[in-house]
Amino acid sequence: MQEQVRVLGVPMDLGADRRGVDMGPSAIRYGGLADQLSDIGIDCIDGGDIAVPRPEERDPDAGGLDSGRAKFFRETKEVCEDVTTAVDATLREGRFPLVLGGDHSIGIGTVAGAAREDEELGVIWFDAHGDFNTPATTPSGNIHGMSLAAVLGLGAFSDHAWAHTPAVSEENVVIVGLRDVDDGERRLIEESDITAYTMSDIDARSAPAVVDEALDIATDGTDGIHVSLDLDWLDPTEAPGVGTPVRGGVSYREAHIAMEYVAEQHDQLRSMELVEVNPILDEHNRTAELACELVASAFGKRVL
What we know:
Elements: E1 4-10, H1 24-30, H2 33-38, E2 43-49, H3 73-92, E3 96-101, H4 107-114, E4 121-126, H5 147-151, E5 173-178, H6 183-191, E6 195-198, H7 199-205, H8 207-219, E7 224-230, H9 252-263, E8 269-275, H10 286-298
Parallel strand pairs: 1-2, 1-3, 3-8, 4-5, 4-7, 5-6, 7-8
Helix pairs in contact: 1-10, 3-4, 7-8, 8-9, 9-10
């Protein structure tokens, strides 16, 4: 992990039905992200926002996909390619890319930007949802529910280089905190070689035990890891301002200790993203402020 962090905002809401997550990057910045990192000695440079088309000006079903349904497919491709370029450039400059969403479709671009030729990249996906639908299984057509499947090149995404990241093997992909999974993606998860931990696993075994094992899987034989943190991973009582809240998530302390475990892998941590913060649904920006706190824990902040 680099001492210098570059923040990249992606005000993306094309991948979801509910508006508001496009304001997530601004809310997180306003929540004190730079100060949180500065307090632990990390230099934070703001790289600004990547341009995202307005959904009102585009046709969600206009071309780009041979089979199945994926709303704003063409626009998502364009944005994710720009995210890939920005993340790749940040790493080449010796800085750590911290990407702020926006909905979870941006993860397709972040992972591709963090990947390197002839290197294996592990991925940990902290999320209430699997994001494992394909255009053929999705009940909604929303790409934020397909982003992890796209990274792995499942279904119709196999023919699209902007989405499929060959450097990521299913064996090194871990989802942590599942509690809301569609029938079609459940079958795909069960048939895949990824590892998925539900909230029941966390309840039975504890968050530290599950996260520690997840990190072992993601780092096994890989050259670096990407951490994707969807704020709906937390219980809505802790993080009310998210795009798709689901009751029964992790607690405030469970989330912090998970990020503290991530920090222990600082030599392996290559990139990170925060997604699905929706200020319209939030209470006094508390979800964005919590996101800032969790980033600080992931970068090494401790009580003592």
